[in-house]
Amino acid sequence: FLLLVLLLQRRLLSSSQTEHGLLPYSNNLLLNPSFAGFNRSTSVWSNLIFFSHSPLNINYSFSVTYDTWLEKTKTGTAFYFYQGLKGKLNLVHTGAGFTLNRPIEIQNGKVIPSINLSYLVYSKQWLVYFLDNVLDLEKDTNGNSVYQQPGDGFMLYKEMIPRLGLLWDSPILTAGVSGSRYHIFEQDSLMPRAHIVLHATKKMKGR
Asked: Which segments of the chain does DSSP mark as H helices, in order?
């Protein structure tokens, strides 16, 4: 079994890559939406990752996916749930997504084009918002309220992520590509970004 994953992430002004950013791709659906209902199967997958850049700021990422094959329509479908926290920014995101694909038989293999759409909502971490806005414990020297990051608001911005996938499956090789574009609403200071994932798996006889 050979798996090669190449992750390319492009930002308008800068680019970065971290080790924990690659871990969710152990879930095929996050690697490529064309895997939904792959080989006419049904699966449920969940993942929880904790990571930190300092002992005082803990981040986590949680996701659940469910995919199945619909024989009546000959399509693969999937549903996604996302939840996570950026501790340094007190920023929480919650979202959901949906995937649809339809395999096309070609000689000894098949091509599977797919489309995925996810929608995320970002807000201030609930406990921090309660301490800042409800209990109002912290004041400056003039008696004004002091708010922790990212400010006094609760709902911050929304993000829509369309993604396209293409998968080639044959008796000796499975390879594909997926691309995403992140559209951010109600937050002009954040730059839009995109990423592309390429992957290939060589199959071994009897497996």
From this structure: 28-31, 126-129
Q: What is the CA radius of gyration of the chain?
A: 20
Is residue 103 reached through a cis peptide bond, with omega within 30 degrees of 0 on the bond before it? Answer: no
- Rounded to 5°, the CA angle 138-139-144 comes to 135
138/143 Cα distance (integer angstroms): 9
Give tens-digit pLDDT for 35-50. Answer: 999 999 999 998 888 8
Residue 117: pLDDT over 90: yes
Q: Where are the alpha helices (DSSP H) in 57-137?
A: 126-129
Residue whose token pair is 């071994």: 204
Residue 43 CA, distance from chain mean position: 18
pLDDT in tens, 152-200: 667 778 999 999 999 999 989 999 999 999 888 866 666 678 889 888 8
Q: Do 102 and 112 form a contact (C-beta atoms < 8 A)?
A: yes
Distance of CA 175 to the CA centre of its chain: 20
Give the alpha-carbon dihedral of 148, 184, 176, 174, to 10 degrees.
Answer: 50
